[in-house]
């Protein structure tokens, strides 16, 4: 089940309010989280509108709420926003949102808890839940959309991955695999839309 557009905006604003208050206290720009959610929603909707079998409205709602667990992650140390968002959305009955809260973080199937600052039990649980589901095009769509947004700006995949490498201190070998998987995801949607998705979302490229 999916929330309505209006409900999604309310959920998004609620989590963004908490996340952005903490961002500002940490010296980050205001509306960074809100901007991120909205920009990922924009990219997801844009790409979906060029895919015959994807619903742009659903894509927008999923993009807007993919980081719903961020407010909880920022409030409770070591909490992983993926499982936090998943649990909250499942509790509310929005299973379609719940799954992208979780799947968007694992586009490269890397579940190594050693390489994250998150509570390892949450990561192990995330792995178990994902292993029992089959990822679909909406999971992939939110993964690629999130990979094209750094902070609240639309950027190429390389810029986003550099940001991830620095933020989470990810090993070089793991990053190599992330680049490979991210590139494959982009190619999948280039093919599905029949054009370079960078053009669709306004990324300048060679
Ligand atoms: Fe995100």
What brief labels describe this structure?
206 residues, two-stranded antiparallel ribbon, 2 strands, globular, 11 helices, binds fe (ii) ion, single chain, mainly alpha
Class from helix and strand fractions: mainly alpha
Mean pLDDT: 94
Number of strand elements: 2
Please mark out the parts with pLDDT under 50 across 5 or more consecutive residues, or reply none: none
* DSSP helix fraction: 55-70%
Strand order of the largest sheet: 1-2
Number of helices: 11
Bound molecules: fe (ii) ion
Give the tally of structural domains.
Answer: 1
Query: How would you characterize the largest beta sheet?
Result: 2 strands, antiparallel
Give the end-to-end Cα distance, rounded to a whole number of Å: 40 Å
Strand proportion, as a percent range, falls in: under 5%
Order of helices and strands: HHHHHHHHEEHHH
Shape: globular
Query: What gyration radius follows from the Cα positions, in whole Å?
Result: 16 Å
What does this structure look like?
The chain has 206 residues and is mostly helical. The chain has one domain (5-200). The chain has eleven helices and two strands. The longest helix is centred in the C-terminal third of the chain and has 22 residues, at 172-193. It is globular, with a radius of gyration of 16 Å. The N and C termini lie far apart (40 Å). Residues 36, 40, 66-67, 146 line the site of fe (ii) ion.
């Amino acid at each position: 089940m999916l929330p309505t557009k209006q409900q999604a905006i309310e959920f998004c604003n609620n989590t963004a309010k908490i996340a952005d208050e903490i961002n500002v206290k940490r010296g980050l720009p205001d509306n960074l989280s809100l901007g991120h959610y909205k920009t990922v929603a924009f990219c997801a909707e844009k790409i979906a509108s060029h895919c015959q079998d994807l619903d742009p409205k659903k894509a927008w709602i999923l993009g807007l709420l993919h980081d719903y667990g961020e407010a909880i992650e920022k409030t409770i140390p070591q909490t992983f926003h993926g499982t936090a968002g998943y649990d909250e959305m499942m509790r509310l009955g929005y299973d379609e949102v719940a799954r992208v809260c979780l799947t968007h973080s694992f586009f490269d199937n890397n579940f190594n808890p050693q390489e994250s600052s998150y509570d390892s039990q949450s990561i192990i649980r995330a792995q178990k839940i994902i292993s029992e589901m089959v990822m679909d095009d909406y999971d992939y769509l939110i993964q690629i959309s999130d990979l094209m947004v750094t902070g609240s700006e639309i950027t190429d995949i390389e810029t986003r991955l550099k940001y991830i490498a620095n933020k989470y201190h990810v090993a070089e070998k793991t990053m190599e695999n992330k680049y490979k998987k991210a590139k494959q995801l982009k190619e999948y949607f280039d093919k599905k839309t029949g054009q370079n998705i960078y053009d669709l979302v306004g990324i300048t490229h060679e």
